[in-house]
Amino acid sequence: ITEKDADLRGMPHVSYEDIGGLKDELQKVREMIELPLRHPEIFEKLGIEAPKGVLLFGPPGTGKTLLAKAVASESNAHFITISGPEIMSKFYGESEARLREIFKEAKDKAPSIIFIDEIDSIAPKREEVTGEVERRVVSQMLSLMDGLEGRGKVIVIAATNRQNALDPALRRPGRFDREIEIKVPDKHGRLEILQIHSRNMPLDTDVDQPRIAAVSHGFVGADLEYLCKEAAMKCLRRLLPELNMEEDKLPPATLDKLIITQNDFDQ
Ligand code: ATP
User: Fold this and answer.
1) ipTM surpassing 0.90
2) Which atom of ligand 1 lies closest to the CA of 189?
3) Is 225 in the pocket of ligand 1 (CB under 6 A)?
4) Where is the signal peptide (predicted)?
5) d(CA 192, CA 22)
6) Which of 62, 82, 96, 250 is the most exposed place for a label (fewest CB within 10 A)?
């Protein structure tokens, strides 16, 4: 299918190649989500239910959304994304109806993935739940998940940074009963992420990505992406005085000077 078709079908164009590090996590995601979406007959033959809900937990910016989009895209599944805070605020008063609509769309367009970002804001632990609205939204969500057939046609992926803040009722069998921890990348993961985000950039031969990966301890994917974009912007700012913006077409010699150096990555 073409990109345009993919757009029309609500599918993101993210491939597994766009994910750095997370090799084991990706393997688990493929087994738990891609396999049942693509081959529900395996689960039928074995007489077991495919997972209905998978919880991804880990710090912000580590690639949870990216993983969900990639598995949808690679499984040719319809992708619907909702954010917890949005459901609670934007659709205030209609949150439950909105949830029912989303599950209906997912069934109609199956195979589908429903991705719920920041689920803890919909379904915090009951002792943290103050409002009646939250309680109603949680029970609507539980009943919608219980209503899924478990034949792999619709899988709900939820993401949270605070795994322990979740209502335990959501984590019972048949609901979000599989969990995958998405960790901060190590040196090797950071290198892969840097390579992904700079793959279309004109890098000078002096750019030492293994060194950048080694010294960027604690950086998550989103930070590394930002680092690459910033380096490109520094390169641009360095050459800006030489650019004649009045020119309709920049001479190739000018474009040839746009090369990102190690210095652009430093500081
Ligand atoms: P949040 O909890 O804030 O929603 P998240 O874990 O869902 O965070 P993403 O939204 O997936 O994080 O990451 C933000 C961006 O950072 C991605 O769109 C991607 O460009 C980049 N990124 C994050 N992790 C990775 C990774 N492992 N490989 C490549 N790029 C990554």
Assistant:
1) yes
2) 27
3) yes
4) none
5) 10
6) 250
